[in-house]
Fold Phosphoribosylformylglycinamidine synthase subunit PurS.
Amino acid sequence: MARVVVDVMLKPEILDPQGQAVQRALPRLGFDGIADVRQGKRFELEVEGPVDDAALARIHEMAETFLANTVIEDFAVKVEETAEPAK
Amino acid sequence: MARVVVDVMLKPEILDPQGQAVQRALPRLGFDGIADVRQGKRFELEVEGPVDDAALARIHEMAETFLANTVIEDFAVKVEETAEPAK
């Protein structure tokens, strides 16, 4: 079973109030030197069968239509190596 | 300016209703072959200055005390290469 990760982040031009809240809280908590924080979502998908081009194309479509709102969000699909790689 | 990513995911033994909702919706939307979905958070931190061991140690502490709830969540800190690498 292979793991595919879909990262969904707000586009850079979209205001990210969650990230701003985190960034503003950091100095109060004693953490300096962080210029910007953006918060997004991470989906870990356990894929049955091999992660070939067809499977990745399907996951890409799934991310585009369902996991991300592509009006305001960007997404990235990455294959993660697992202990038992896809054959 | 270097980018450091903190991924926060629920621990494997903790129920993830958000991920389950996504997983159950997928077959209805025509996507089969996904055995499991876990949903978590991704923080992208823009770090001022070099990302050396001291900076990473601070970010690790920040993630542990502030970004993740380590009772129920695991986190991972990763340095991402950017166009303008830290000097």
